[in-house]
Amino acid sequence: MDSRRILITGLSSYWGGRLAQALEREPAAQAIIGVDSSDPRHQLERTEFVRVDTQHGLIRRIINAAAIDTVIDTRLVVDPLTAPLKLAHETNVIGTMNILAACSGSESPVRKFVFKSSAHYYGCEQDDPAFFSEDMIRPHPPRTAIERDIVEAEEAVADFAARNPDTTVSVLRVANGIGGDLHTSHLALLSLPVVPSILGFDPRYQFIHEDDIVGVLEHAVRHDLPGIYNAAADGVLALSEVVSLLGKPLLPLLPPWGTGFTAAQLRRLGLRIPVEMVRQLRFGRGLDNRRLKASGYSFRYTTREAVLKLRAQQRLRPLLRSGAESYHYEREIEEFLRWSPSVQSAPDRGQGVWRPSAAQIAQLERTLAALRPSDAADSPASARAPLPSYDDLTAEEVIEIASSLEASALAELRRFEAANRARKEVLAALDRNLARWRPSSAAQ
Amino acid sequence: MADPPEQHETAGEHETAGDPVADGATVELALNDLRRELPLAPGDLRQFLPGLEPERQVTDWGRSERVEGLVDRTLYEFLYHYWFRVEVEGVENVPDHGGALLVANHAGAVPPDGAMIGKAIREEHAHPRPLHLTMEPSFTGFPGVGMLATKIGGVPAHPANVHRLLFDERQLVLVFPEGRQGAEKRLRDRYRVRRFGRGGVVEAAMRARAPIVPIAVVGAEEAQPVFARLSLLRRLTRLPSVPVTSPLPLPAKFRIRFLEPVWTDELGDAPWEDQGLVQTLSHDIRALIQENLFEMVAARRSVWLG
Question: Most buried in the list A46, A218, B71, B89, measured by CB within 10 Å?
């Protein structure tokens, strides 16, 4: 993984929080910083949260101060259920512009930009292909506000990619998400006891499980995926098939003509059917996910399995509702746990993640300083007695420290390790870290 | 994708490795299919097609095994054997496996020809295969009709759909290149094959390196004759056309002749770039169907008895 210092925008969104949790388990990630305008909704161990709106000046300062190399933008509002239209426009178009402005510039440290987009980019039309692939241009101009926003945001990202050829820009067009923890208008529809549909239409639906959305985002962070990728599970199901898998009846409540009008009336009765959904209920949509699969990602669930998983969660929901305790972000507690000198054990230590303490780093640097004078002579490091403090460290710990060392110290450490214990994994890790330094030193 | 000459050599190896299909006329066919069955190059996206889920009864295209089986056992069975008394020639020209583009002449208000060609392959072919039928996209947007057509094997006519079916999934695809012009043909113009669009059909086959099987169908153009068209009603309902026609298909005698496949994979690297070649091949196939139609119509004694 090349990404070490990561910024997640939209940390309080479902995907932002889950992604941060996933990345926290990765020891190579030195710093994970999340920004959002509201408090995080997921419990995080070492991610640092900064409450900031999408003001490019402030975000730019964070990016430069923390030397962020990877920015993941998970903010996009793709469902009118999540935010009112005006706010959605503000977030999707103006917000994206601001984030991109904060990442651009010749001296910007950002080397990778991952943008979570939506399959709503393609729209739903009568003359659509059965499977959209990434290079297809949408046949008609966008018809709804959300689609217009998404197209505009993607245009801004494409523009950014063209202006910053050194930055890897990945755009992930994610299909309709499905899962017990998501809140979308489609899931609201599918959780009704009787699922309404349009008379005379049985649209094709392709979903992606919530775990796979997080998985795809993580995949884009771990690997370099320049370009656009469709993220949708294998298998396109007819709506009738989805509903029968959920064990519910399908009710053709909406007439084929005057659908929009009826949907507006139903909205008054409390059944929210947004315009995007009406179009999808009529024509459906399928995506070609093969480019993502060819890049090495394998989906955990097919569309059918994701629907079956949703069924299980829907059946459990009445039991879980009472006992569910949600997480509340308390700034003081989080800051105490992260920064107080009184905190003895890192809470994530048990999970195999180890971060060097300041004292340990200082100790290692002392041992390296002791090694330095012998540099002139020919390999005296091997002759010297093994340093006691260095021997105490396990291979894992050395690898961890290596990621925060300077090039000269790394070279030193490598020589010492090769002469003494020559642990293969340690040498490989040191080489990897040295390779990271090479291009930048050449540039200087 | 590996280039064709290399494929030739390896195809020979495959044959000696022991494929039972190697007698006389089908050798060329077998060779061609073997070429298609070769292992895929690393960058080929075909290896990433979604796997089959045996529990499902509906395909990713929306085709329902259950509905299709039901229609096939009742309506098609009756129409094929008793109403149109279909006679088939040359069904062996449809390849056993691999993608192939079937091209037929087309006429009639609610054309039964596509369904009868599909039924003919299921009934008469040594290796019955499903047939995907392309249909006018405006048809899919019509409530009920589009839904049913999709369930029994209809696919919206879109170049990307045809390519995926032919090249990636190696299926049989039936197209009516006359398109709407064919369906709107009046009775007095019957069996005069219209222009084949802009050659898009041939181009699709070339891109997929799939053979084209021309088909001449006699009978369909009299089974549901179009006497006139109502343009006002068409505009109101947004249907492709509203014809004045017989309420039920008339019991005309059907003859379906499958012609020799036209191979498109030996025309060079990117034959679709050469618009002249595309137009010539398109014209040749149209002429071939027309010629066979005239021959079949001249040979029959009666529209109803054949």
Answer: A218
